[in-house]
Amino acid sequence: DQQVKQNSPSLSVQEGRISILNCDYTNSMFDYFLWYKKYPAEGPTFLISISSIKDKNEDGRFTVFLNKSAKHLSLHIVPSQPGDSAVYFCAASAFDSGAGSYQLTFGKGTKLSVIP
Amino acid sequence: DGGITQSPKYLFRKEGQNVTLSCEQNLNHDAMYWYRQDPGQGLRLIYYSQIVNDFQKGDIAEGYSVSREKKESFPLTVTSAQKNPTAFYLCASSIGERLRNQPQHFGDGTRLSIL
């Protein structure tokens, strides 16, 4: 049972336009959400995060929006650049009372291709 | 430069062999993690450690073992009991498991293949 879903396996966008990557979650206990970017044969790189007490967080060209009522978050990249072409993973964190720690749950990723 | 170093980048194993993947961090992070990534899949948690000499099973711990004798090091052993070990293995660390809202930072991974 996937608690974090990225329903689009891939996305193609023209250079200079906006890229919108979507993520849905089912666990209402998630209170911290992250986006990672991954190139082939490399580890994921942390991009941006948002706490559940906010609905928007911006960092340069990257903005994350959180809609708690819809259990939905999205990553906007404006303007998109060819170097943004990578796989983007959405992740969510909740406190695991059994383990006494916070755990990250990842989506399956969306492959973004930015076309020059 | 501070970071997480995984070695080797590529590793080959014969059937029935145990292999150990190295993960070292110089970020002074308390928490360390091992994930497995399969094609078209997200990252799945194998083991994690909140502090030296302590570690916990993740979602897919069967066939794996770890140790945490030093803060900087969290090696993962893929045992012969792991029936499908071919995958991309990622190590990560974070400041502290009990702190809220702390991102995990990843190494560049080790790709394990069966000969």
Main traits of this protein?
heterodimer, A: 116 residues, mainly beta, six-stranded mixed beta sheet, five-stranded antiparallel beta sheet, globular, B: 115 residues, seven-stranded mixed beta sheet, four-stranded antiparallel beta sheet, 11 strands, 0% helix
- The counted number of beta strands of chain B is 11
- Series of H and E elements of chain A: EEEEEEEEEEE
Total helical segments of chain A: 0
- Give the fraction of residues assigned to helices of chain A: under 10%
Could you spell the SSE succession of chain B in H and E letters? EEEEEEEEEEE
Query: Helix count of chain B?
Result: 0
Number of strands of chain A: 11
| Greatest contact between two chains | A-B, 26 and 28 residues
Which structural class is indicated by helix and strand composition of chain B? mainly beta
Taken from the alpha-carbon principal axes, the silhouette of chain B is globular
The largest pleated sheet of chain B is described as: 7 strands, mixed
Content of β-strand of chain B: over 45%
- Mean pLDDT of chain B comes to 91
Strand content of chain A: over 45%
The oligomeric state of the chains shown is heterodimer
* Computed CA radius of gyration of chain A, to the nearest angstrom: 14 Å
Uncertain regions spanning at least 5 consecutive residues of chain A: none
Q: What's the end-to-end separation of chain A, in Å? A: 38 Å
Structural class of the helices, strands and pairings of chain A? mainly beta
End-to-end gap of chain B:
35 Å
Could you list the spans of chain B in which at least 5 consecutive residues all have pLDDT below 50? none
